[in-house]
Design brief:
alpha/beta, single chain, globular, 458 residues, 6-stranded mixed sheet, 18 helices
Length: 458
């Protein structure tokens, strides 16, 4: 006799099979089956080869619905979105040594032009209107290219403020700066400068996306960072969000080195960062000090800091699932069966809540936030609690799509880091010569803005 939990899983599996059999019974010989099996290769970005929540749910699919239909999804690459972009371009162009084009891959909408829209499966040729109506409308709309739904949402992320609570509490006790002070960027930057003094020169935080910072900041001040595919560095609102950031960075409170914040958490080089809600997947549970001693830490996720309390905002992002269109209809049907299964409520929740992402259907979103307490891991529960807080009062922004968007974002990150790092080095030199810290800070913040503007003058 089945226990309650196993019985529910079994019933859910049987209902899923009934759905697929009913929905696809008219496809006849075009349907995959154990007698006519299909193996689909896949590239995705969710985790690493040894720690991937998506790989776990794919294993579940392969051993359940996949087995019934003779479908195997074979993950051959787990990497970054930029690496997938490059690999797809190499495959599409037939470059020597390029990997074969995968059947399925996760990516951002920009890849449609790389691969060719005509080569991609249109999901709305397979999903019914009723099925598509269950997806969160904003998430689904990003995947349309004209009338064709080429990118299917499977997971979305937003941003949060991560804090090493263990080390911050020590700093807080000495400085009087509290967690509540970190609700605004003004408070964060004040904390960064104070922490730099208290710690003997260490950086407080790392900002993983300056582009997102500027985009949301200018929105908060009633302006636009991007217009007609051009960055509006000269706008007064950009100056408003730039100056406090620049002063904190030039002072030494913000880490300006390349690399990921999670790696710096491990060595306590920083104790805070802004980043994707999915960064929780890589968040360490202990720090290692220079003398090789280790310490367990408690991490907390807070809402993305506000620029103004009247207009809080945050970016939401995430690519989606693409499929290469095949002349063999059996393969297209197999891609649909997998995609439909992955976006069902329980399967999607199993995937996303172990990766710090948001589910993509309204039903799953409601289920997640109706019972956050069921999430077992404390740091994941903290992420979803912060997201739930933002859902109540924040505006969620999707970055606009335009030609060269990816390159523009990468260039902006590089330029900001370079300009601020140069100014920080000048600051250290001038302070060592006995110059007035505040006067030098003001001067260098102004000159850093002028230098950044010069990089975008035509």
């Amino acid at each position: 006799m089945l226990e309650g939990g196993n019985m529910k899983k079994t019933l859910a599996f049987l209902l899923t099979l009934v759905f697929f059999i009913t929905a696809l019974s008219g496809c006849g010989q075009q349907m995959p089956s154990p007698a006519n099996p299909v193996t689909l290769t896949m590239w995705h970005v969710y985790g690493s080869q040894t720690k991937s929540p998506l790989n776990d749910v794919i294993d579940t699919f392969n051993h359940s619905v996949g087995r019934e239909y003779g479908i195997t999804v074979n993950v051959v690459s787990v990497t970054s979105s930029s690496a997938i972009d490059r690999a797809l371009a190499a495959s599409a162009n037939g470059e020597p040594g390029a990997d074969a084009m995968p059947d399925l891959f996760t990516a951002y909408p920009r890849v449609a032009e790389i691969v060719g829209q005509e080569n991609l499966l249109s999901w709305n040729d397979y999903f019914t209107k009723k099925e598509l109506s269950g997806f969160h409308a904003d998430f689904l709309s990003e995947g349309y290219f004209g009338e064709k739904l080429l990118m299917l949402p499977v997971a979305k992320s937003t941003e949060a403020f991560y804090l090493n609570k263990t080390l911050f509490d020590r700093f807080s006790a000495a400085s009087g700066i509290s967690v509540a002070d970190l609700s605004t960027f003004e408070g964060v930057f004040d904390a960064a400068r104070t922490y730099c003094d208290w710690s003997g020169g260490q950086s407080f935080l790392q900002i993983n996306d300056y582009f997102h910072y500027a985009y949301v900041g200018m929105k908060a001040h009633g302006s636009e960072f991007i217009r007609s595919g051009r960055l509006r560095i000269e706008d007064e609102a950009f100056r408003t969000v730039w100056m406090p950031l620049a002063k904190a960075a030039i002072y030494g409170g913000i880490c300006l080195d390349e690399g990921y914040a999670a790696a710096r958490w491990k060595t306590a080089e920083v104790i805070a960062n802004t980043g994707s809600s999915a960064d929780v997947l890589y968040q360490p549970t202990e720090v290692i000090y220079p003398d090789n001693t280790t310490e367990a830490i408690q991490a907390a996720a807070l809402p993305y800091p506000m620029f103004t309390e009247s207009a809080p905002g945050v970016i939401y992002r995430g690519g989606g699932l693409f499929a290469m269109k095949s002349d063999n209809e059996r393969r297209n049907q197999a891609a649909y069966i997998f995609a439909r299964w992955l976006t069902e409520k329980e399967n999607n929740l199993e995937f996303v809540q172990n990766a710090g992402y948001l589910p993509v259907t309204d039903e799953a979103l409601s289920a997640l936030f109706a019972n956050i307490s069921r999430i077992e891991k404390e740091n994941y529960r903290s992420v979803y609690t912060s997201v739930d807080t933002m859902l109540d009062s924040y505006t969620f922004y999707a970055l606009p799509l335009y030609d060269g968007a990816s390159e523009m974002q990468l260039d902006f990150e590089k330029n900001v880091n370079s300009v601020l790092k140069s100014a920080h080095n000048q600051y250290k030199k001038l302070i060592s010569e006995g110059k007035s810290p505040e006067k030098i800070l003001d001067t260098l913040a102004e000159s850093s803005l002028a230098e950044l503007k010069s990089l975008y003058e035509k």
